[in-house]
Amino acid sequence: MITNPRICLPSTVHIFLFFSFSFPLFFFFSFHAFVLFLFFSYLSYHTGGFVYWHSTRGVGTLTGIDT
Predict the structure, then answer these.
(1) Which of 44, 49, 57, 64 has the smallest set of CB atoms within 10 Å of its CB?
(2) Which distant-in-sequence residues (6+ apart) come within 8 Å of 62 by Cβ?
(3) What mean pLDDT is reported for the chain?
(4) Backbone phi, then psi, for 24, in 5-degree steps?
């Protein structure tokens, strides 16, 4: 039994408040990270296809080096 009143133990209310406030923030940031991941994977796929198309056509790549 704790006799010191200055020690604050996390009660059920404290744990509930912590998770109820932290879970929306975690969901918000994880959702935006997922959207950024989809965007950059889409962008890298299409730029890679663009470079490959130019290299097969003989008009050079994005770096200006002719093949």
Answers:
(1) 64
(2) 47, 50, 51, 54
(3) 64
(4) -60, -35
